[in-house]
Design a protein that fits this description.
single chain, disordered C terminus, 2 domains, Jelly Rolls
Length: 268
């Protein structure tokens, strides 16, 4: 009987199969305020400058938080996964748009006034909101560090490590990304061709293996960490990091545009 091997593409993505929902008899008071909505990929959960009447939490699927720059380009501020709370803040209007990126994204929504009243009466809810705020601040600091890196390879490696930490890998060590390469480019402030070329180079060096474009199997996390921490202004040399694993060349993947325009109807 042939020996069974791990299939890096076999497991469904955790952001698709994992669903956060109140258990029967849940004691979480916040859940009693929730209304639930399912969004298709590309659908807006809310738009920039709309009234901020509700707070939201991803239950399953994934979403992107983005802003429109004055020159018309799109910049993605964050990706949201199950458990992430968003839409909160001091302003009465949303400062960005949030759009679903998974085929089906389920979202719980809570009236802002109801949550505020509940937080005033229930210390558990107030603590939960504080922790969410602290997490958002820590994540913003990480984003500033990533965007402060001068080399594309450092940004892409930092992104892969971030997604590996936020999205559970399957038993073969693969991360199934819900976002397109256009989304990754807008998240890292890079051209989509640069993202594709960098991923190809990482695969050439044996640090990762790409399956069906959106499944990334991390083969050597240590190498990704080294490349992500390269000194500013110094172009990493793949030969010094990856030559021992560099065996087979694959065709170079070319992008079709270099700007940060909205995603292609048929994203790659």
């Amino acid at each position: 009987m042939p020996r069974r091997s791990l299939n890096p593409t076999a497991t469904k993505p955790s952001w698709s199969t994992r669903e956060l929902s109140p258990a029967r008899g849940s004691q979480d008071p916040l859940e009693h305020l929730a209304t639930f909505t399912c969004y298709a990929a590309g659908a807006a959960i809310y738009r920039e400058r709309q009234p901020a009447l509700r707070w939201h939490r991803i239950l399953s699927g994934a979403a992107r938080k983005c802003v429109q720059m004055p020159d018309g380009r799109r910049h993605i501020v964050d990706f949201l996964f199950p458990g992430d709370l968003f839409g909160f803040g001091k302003a009465n209007q949303h400062g960005c748009s949030v759009e679903a990126i998974a085929a089906t994204t389920k979202v719980a929504s809570y009236l802002r006034e109801g949550v505020v009243r509940l937080a005033e009466a229930d210390p558990r809810i107030a603590q939960q909101i504080r922790e969410t705020t602290f997490d958002a601040i820590c994540h913003l600091q990480l984003r500033l560090l990533i965007l402060g890196q001068r080399t594309a390879i450092a940004r892409v490696c930092s992104f892969l490590l971030e997604m590996a930490d936020r999205i559970a890998a399957n038993p073969a060590g693969s991360v199934i990304l819900p976002m397109s390469r256009y989304d990754i480019a807008d998240y890292l402030s890079l051209a989509v061709e640069t993202v594709s070329r960098t991923l190809t180079n990482l695969q050439l060096g044996g640090a990762i293996k790409i399956h069906r474009r959106r499944i990334v199997q991390i083969l050597d996390r240590r190498v990704l960490a080294q490349l992500a921490e390269e000194a500013e202004g110094r172009q990493p040399q793949f030969s010094s990091h990856l030559a021992a694993m560099h065996q087979t060349r694959v065709p170079r993947q070319e992008g079709t545009r270099g700007d940060c325009s909205p995603p292609n109807p048929n994203p790659r």
